[in-house]
Design a protein that fits this description.
Structural class: alpha/beta
Oligomer: single chain
CATH topology: Rossmann fold
CATH class: Alpha Beta
Order of helices and strands: EHEHHEHEHHEEEHEEHEEHEEHEHH
Bound molecules: nicotinamide-adenine-dinucleotide
Length: about 425
């Protein structure tokens, strides 16, 4: 199968591209390296030394991997987006290419606007490119469990059967997202659903939980294939951050009482879920939704688990409760269904002490790269403007904070037929 991975330089996208390539699929990646730019903007970096894309692709070829085509460009640039679809003619497009940090979207107006333009316009461009050039192609879109919020009823997989004033219907499950980023994902979901309805496109919206871990079988094959491990307050997902904190003896930063409960999954399950969705595409006109997570935990439960796993490695781990910078319920009901991917064949990797040991060991291995000043939350949901300037950097006109959404600019223009090959 020909699969195009948009956002393939990122955390989930890189692991997915390698996984699919190793299983015999013909893979092309598109990315504009925006994420590397945002790291620079905020003065943060992944714990692991992620290599530049050409080096990543050379390493994949060196160990015998099939050629992965790479296309550099911005999905919000329609010329680029449509050239990717025309030149590669994918059977499936997996769309990861979005700004995915809720705190980033809550820094100030510019970051909120940027996030929504980047995400919504990129997805709209993709829908139009599919309609024009590849209407049978299956869109596999990464959404998030955060689209649902935390309702006081069970969360269904995308749709809910409702009886109202004696009439029945099956309707999209209500969405109550908790940040401008999560709102962008809701807007995407609506646009995708609408495009399936009016144009007969086929789509799978994967409402993913919080991902943890960094190793997949493929990433472990060579140091140069190493994946991201974000631990900072903006991009760091909570379990990865707790492991980095434990490794350097910093108290685990639990926001509020820590009763915030969410769905979680191992990155090895992310890649498998995407493959399962690709192998059994949605029907023409169908927009199906799967809840992509394997277990649910509260933040405090995770902190206690890291504390216990740290003990095995002779780490003394303390837990701090900070005022919650987010506007969210600190204790609430949470019960979300997640059976469709399991019915399709997913065998979950559940969070065990051994996995936590290996996560902690990665954090210990790279502890020299940990900047403790990046642990503490500096973006408060209640403010319209947060000072998230990297330490020591003066505010200046033209700083990365001043940019507007690069609506028509691709970082590296697509060449010729819209692609260039690397790694061969
Ligand atoms: N990581 C998680 O825990 C998690 C949880 C739920 C959902 N998701 C979703 O999965 C997707 C991938 O997340 P991730 O953690 O891999 O993020 P990431 O930031 O590591 O990767 C995203 C990639 O997309 C690229 N990108 C962003 N905007 C682009 C644009 N306009 N044009 C081209 N490339 C662009 C970035 O450069 C980056 O390489 C996102 O859509 C996110 O919302 C992630």
């Amino acid at each position: 199968m020909k699969v195009c991975v948009l956002g393939g330089d990122g955390y989930c996208g890189w692991a997915t591209a390698l996984y699919l390539s190793r299983r015999g699929h013909q893979v092309a990646i598109a990315d504009n390296f925006a994420r590397r730019l945002w790291d620079h903007e905020l003065g943060v970096q992944t714990l692991t030394p992620v290599r530049p894309m050409p080096e990543r692709l050379r390493a994949w070829r060196r160990i015998g991997g099939e050629n992965i085509e790479f296309m550099a460009g911005d999905v919000t640039d329609y010329e680029f987006m449509s050239s990717v679809i025309r030149s590669f003619s994918p059977d499936a497009v997996v769309h990861f290419a979005e700004q995915r940090a809720a705190p980033y979207s809550m820094i100030d107006r510019k970051h909120a606007v940027f996030t929504q333009v980047n995400n919504v316009v990129g997805t709209l461009n993709l829908l139009f490119a599919l309609r024009e050039f590849r209407p049978d192609c299956h869109l596999v879109k990464l959404g998030t469990m955060g689209e649902y919020g935390t309702p006081n009823i069970d969360i269904e997989e995308g749709y809910i059967a409702i009886e109202h004033n004696g009439r029945k219907d099956v309707l999209p499950f209500p969405k109550q997202p908790g940040s401008f980023y999560h709102l962008s994902k809701v807007h995407d979901s609506h646009n995708i659903m609408f495009a399936c309805k009016i144009w007969g496109l086929r789509a799978t919206d994967l409402n993913q939980g919080v991902v943890y871990g960094t190793m997949t079988e493929e990433v472990a094959l060579d140091d140069a294939l190493i994946n991201r491990f974000d631990y900072d307050e903006i991009f760091g997902t909570v379990l990865n951050r707790f492991c980095a904190q434990a490794a350097v003896g910093h108290p685990l930063t639990v926001y509020g009482r820590g009763g915030q409960t969410r769905g979680y999954l191992d990155i090895r399950d992310t890649v498998r879920c995407v493959e399962l969705a690709c192998l059994k595409p949605a029907r023409a006109g169908e927009c199906r939704v799967f809840n992509q997570f394997t277990e649910q935990f509260s933040v405090l439960e995770l902190a206690h688990m890291v504390q216990a796993a740290g003990r095995n490695l002779n780490l003394h781990v303390e837990i701090d409760h900070l005022p919650d910078p987010r506007v969210e319920a600190e204790e609430h009901y949470y019960n979300a269904r997640h059976s469709k991917l399991v019915e399709m064949g997913l065998k979950p990797h559940l969070l065990s002490e051994s996995l936590l040991d290996s996560l902690l060991n990665i954090a210990i291995r790279y502890q020299d790269r940990i900047d403790r000043s990046l642990f503490m939350p500096r973006v408060n949901w209640r403010n319209a403007r947060n000072d998230r300037q990297p330490k020591g950097m003066p505010h200046a006109a033209g700083s990365p904070y001043e940019y507007e959404a690069p609506l028509e600019a691709s970082v590296v223009p697509a060449k010729g037929n819209g692609s260039f090959k690397q790694g061969g």
